[in-house]
Amino acid sequence: MTPTFAAADAEALPLHVIEQGGVDAWAEAQPEPVRAWVAASGFTGALNTALAIPGEGGAPAMALAGYGTPAQRARTRFALAGALPALPPGTWRIASGLPEADAPREALGWLLAGYRFDRYKAQDARHPGLVAPEGLDAARIEILAAAETLTRDLVNTPAADMGPAELQAACERLAADHGARVETVTGEALLERNFPMIHAVGRAAAAHAAPRLMDLRWGDAGPRLTLVGKGVCFDTGGLNLKPGASMGLMKKDMGGAANVLGLAQAIMALGLKVRLRVLIPAVENAVSGASFRPGDILTSRKGLSVEINNTDAEGRLVLADALAFADEEMPDLIVSMATLTGAARVAVGPDLAPFYATEDRLAEALQAAAGPAADPVWRMPFHEPYEAMIEPGIADLDNAPSGGFAGSITAALFLRRFVTATPAYAHFDIYSWQPAAAPGRPKGGLGQGPRAILGALPGILGL
């Protein structure tokens, strides 16, 4: 269930947000019993702490939430959410102490902290409720939380229940909820419609997991925005089989698709004046007699030939056909999202969403929007001298250059070869997974980049 704010007229207890070092100043204005309780508790306002203060009957009458220091908050995306596990259940309202500029971010973090993935096992549903602070666009924050919930649910679902067919069903449910339409090309029809690389990557899977391309459209006015998400629902590595330790998280290899679907949901729910298109190539990179092989040369939709030097570099292949298809329409902006390379994780770790942009204005808008959206991104370079690394000699392109250097950059350069008619293109090489629980971000599937993209769209597209 998507977390929402409590009703404005709900009975809510006051919550005072206290910076570290500010406890004494707050307590001076309180009655003696409250001062004594706070003094006896040892509460200091540290991050990830809270203190319930009882009333005359012993039940909580108010609470304090630690807000740490500015330096500590700079290292914590959703500082207030860290106090929630120490708060008693119930509904709360912010009574004092939360800076107005912080309120949108911290209110979003509060909602995101309430996420539970309970499809297979009941989870602890206790989560303190919050009345939306005054002056916030509560509806927008709830839409952002709902988009993140969709993304997390899709990524967290194992491949047995989130294969290409189930990902198609999720896309169709989203379209039905918002009056969009979806066309899907499946199996051998991919060859008839000229999506040869999507077909090649997915053809080894069982019949129920046949490769497919979903094409969602919504909106009939405004700039054209096309989102492309990698939907590799499970990645064995193909004939270049991954070791077991590397295969354990491969249910999340459709994280790019999950992120663009979450972003699309937010765009449609907010009613942005755009002509939205979402393209998702959905495959399972399986092993069978039909698997594509190292040394094969595939011809892409765009006509470029690709030498396969590693079947585990399959995401860029399915994206390439989808990007070429997107580019034929020449939209105002194309954004691709993919859990594409381990090299990106080595470069920036799991917490940042690295991206590539063909235009400085596009990159600047994304970077400017990331902070307010609490969705950190980092620009990476389309480094032209590395183009030679993806040119193998016997084909136009190499899907896995040898040597191991600059793996994220060479993958982005590979994708850029398929976007030649659309000037504005951004590619996100994301992780889409929270490896350890943090405030507002439970361990598991994660949205990375959509809120920054959403915040940047008005400036990029002139909305």
In words, what does this structure look like?
By secondary structure, the protein is of the alpha/beta class. The chain folds into two domains: 13-131, 3-Layer(aba) Sandwich (Leucine Aminopeptidase, subunit E, domain 1), CATH 3.40.220.10; 143-461, 3-Layer(aba) Sandwich (Aminopeptidase), CATH 3.40.630.10. Helix content is 32%, strand content 20%. Strands 6, 7, 8, 9, 10, 13, 14, 15 and 17 form a nine-stranded mixed sheet that branches. The protein has a five-stranded mixed sheet with strand order 2-3-1-4-5, sandwiched between helices. A hairpin with a 5-residue loop joins strand 11 and strand 12. Helix 4 runs parallel beside helix 5 (138-156) and helix 8 packs antiparallel against helix 11. It is elongated and about 80 Å long. The two termini are 31 Å apart. The model has no long low-confidence stretch (mean pLDDT 97).
Outline the secondary-structure elements:
Elements: E1 13-18, H1 23-28, H2 32-41, E2 50-54, E3 60-66, H3 70-74, E4 91-96, H4 103-113, E5 129-130, H5 138-156, H6 164-178, E6 181-186, H7 189-192, H8 196-202, E7 212-218, E8 224-229, E9 231-235, H9 244-247, H10 255-270, E10 275-285, E11 297-299, E12 305-307, H11 315-327, E13 333-338, H12 342-348, E14 353-357, H13 360-370, E15 377-379, E16 397-398, H14 407-416, E17 425-429, E18 433-434, E19 444-445, H15 450-461
